[in-house]
Each structure stands twice: as structure tokens, then as C-alpha cells.
């Protein structure tokens, strides 16, 4: 089922509750009443087509309208990606860290092994935070400057130099390292976790890691297949006009 702007938001969530964090990233909170997606987007000043396409991309892994997504302004894409960054850093990874910390409080037998898992996850969080910081402070401002230069029809020398020396294509490989580490953590828990006192808690941790992995994959897909090609096209247009 594809989500449509005429659908009631409550019905969408009842059909696919995993979309709640995505909806929340747009500043929309529970308590939708009988409002449609279109009505809620209008109330919140959101681009309804972009919102609906984003929901569908997370709802159906086979749905990914590349051309439509690339037609949106880069600033709109970046605004969404930055909201996703805050969700990952402020909500999702702290939630998993708290669950892992709880295992250390509740299991006296396996503290050493669980401590190593905690250390591995904390190292992942630190690396992930650095990756996001680079995007927020270097990559995204660069993209916004490109968009502004194209709109103005002129580019400063500093921006032209940046296009020549550090094009966006250099950035693509970074996602693979981040994704590999979360896969490794999941693999360690599935294959090597000693028998815990609380199976249910570790199943919950594993579920949250799977969810994080899925959300990161969708996030990376938007960046790699939409934002980066869009930026490459902007770089080419600016170089061609100078």
C-alpha cells in the first residue's frame, strides 16, 4: 500500500507504527485526530509531497522515486537529514546505550563480556557522532552554498576551489564504515553473547539495533542516491558556467 496525502495520519500509523519516528522528525506529534496528512502538513508548514514520498520510502523498501526526490531543493533534503541526525544522536543511540547499561546492573555473571559490548557500542557512537558532525558542519553548508551560487548565477573563488579540490564524491565511502560497525555489533550479540539472566532484555536490545540499522540504511540511501548525485550535478553546472 502506498501512502497518499488524503489518508488520515492516524490510519497510516495504525497500519505501520514504525513510521512514528519518521513522522516525529518533521515536528509532528501524536494526537492526530481525524486529520489527513495534507491537513497536518499545512498546519506545520511542511512540503506535503516531500513528506509523503519520505514516508513511502521508509514504509516500502521497493519504493524509491529517485527523479522525484532529486527534483526537490537541496535545502529541503538537508533540513530533513539534519532532523534525522538529531533523532539518531539524541534518541535512538542513547536508548540502546541505556539498555546495554541496564544489562551491566542486572547480570553479575557476564559483566566482563557485557562491558566489552558496551565499549564497542560507545566507540561506534563516538565514530558515528563524528561522521554526523562532519556532515552538519562541512558537507551540508557546502551543499547550501552550491545551491545559493546556482540561484545567484555566480560563485565565489573559494567555492570554485572547493569544487576542484574536495568534490562531494570523496564523501560517499564514509557510510560504508559506519554501517559495517553496526553490523559487527549485531553479529557479536547473535553469535557470541553468553547466556544472559534476562533474555528478554537482550532481545529488546537486538530489536533496537535492527531498527537502527534499517533506519540508517534508509538515511544513507537518501544521501547516496539523491543528495550526492544532486550535488554532483550542481558542481558540474557551476564549473561549466565559470
Please explain how this structure is put together.
The structure is a single chain. This protein has helices at residues 9-15, 20-25, 37-44, 48-59, 66-71, 74-106, 111-152, 157-165, 174-192, 199-240. It is mainly alpha-helical and 242 residues long. The protein folds into 2 domains: 9-63, no CATH class; 69-240, no CATH class.
Topology:
Layout: H1 9-15, H2 20-25, H3 37-44, H4 48-59, H5 66-71, H6 74-106, H7 111-152, H8 157-165, H9 174-192, H10 199-240
Helix pairs in contact: 6-7, 6-10, 7-9, 7-10, 9-10
Features:
242 residues, mainly alpha, 10 helices, 2 domains, 0% strand, 76% helix
Quickly describe the structure.
The chain is mainly α and 242 residues long.
Number of domains: 2
Main sheet attributes: strand count, strand direction, barrel closure: none
Shape, per Cα inertia axes: flat
Query: Could you spell the SSE succession in H and E letters?
Result: HHHHHHHHHH
Percent helix:
over 70%
Q: Which spans have pLDDT < 50 for at least 5 consecutive residues?
A: none
Q: How many extended strands?
A: 0
Oligomer: single chain
- SS-based class: mainly alpha
Number of helices: 10
Average pLDDT metric = 92
Radius of gyration in whole Å, from Cα? 21 Å
Distance between the termini: 47 Å
Note the beta-strand portion: under 5%
Amino acid at each position: 500500500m502506498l501512502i497518499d496525502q488524503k489518508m488520515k495520519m492516524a490510519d497510516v500509523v495504525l497500519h505501520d507504527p514504525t513510521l512514528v519516528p519518521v513522522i516525529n522528525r518533521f515536528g509532528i506529534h501524536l494526537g492526530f485526530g481525524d486529520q489527513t496528512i495534507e491537513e497536518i502538513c499545512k498546519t506545520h508548514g511542511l512540503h506535503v509531497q516531500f513528506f509523503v514520498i519520505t514516508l513511502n520510502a521508509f514504509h516500502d523498501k521497493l519504493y524509491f522515486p529517485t527523479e522525484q526526490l532529486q527534483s526537490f531543493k537541496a535545502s529541503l533534503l538537508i533540513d530533513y537529514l539534519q532532523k534525522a541526525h538529531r533523532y539518531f544522536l539524541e534518541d535512538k543511540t542513547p536508548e540502546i546505550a541505556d539498555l546495554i547499561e541496564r544489562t551491566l546492573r542486572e547480570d553479575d555473571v557476564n559483566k566482563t563480556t557485557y562491558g566489552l559490548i558496551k565499549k564497542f557500542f560507545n566507540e561506534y557512537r563516538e565514530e558515528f557522532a563524528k561522521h554526523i558532525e562532519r556532515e552538519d558542519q562541512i558537507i551540508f553548508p557546502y551543499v547550501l552554498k552550491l545551491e545559493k551560487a546556482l540561484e545567484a548565477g555566480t560563485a565565489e573563488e573559494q567555492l570554485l576551489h572547493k569544487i576542484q579540490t574536495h568534490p562531494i564524491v570523496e564523501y560517499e565511502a564514509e557510510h560504508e564504515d559506519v554501517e559495517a560497525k553496526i553490523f559487527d555489533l549485531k553479529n557479536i550479540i547473535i553469535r557470541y553473547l553468553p547466556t544472559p539472566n534476562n533474555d528478554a532484555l537482550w532481545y529488546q536490545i537486538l530489536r533496537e539495533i535492527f531498527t537502527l540499522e534499517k533506519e540508517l540504511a534508509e538515511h544513507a540511501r537518501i544521501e547516496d542516491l539523491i543528495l550526492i548525485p544532486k550535488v554532483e550535478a550542481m558542481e558540474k553546472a557551476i564549473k561549466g558556467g565559470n
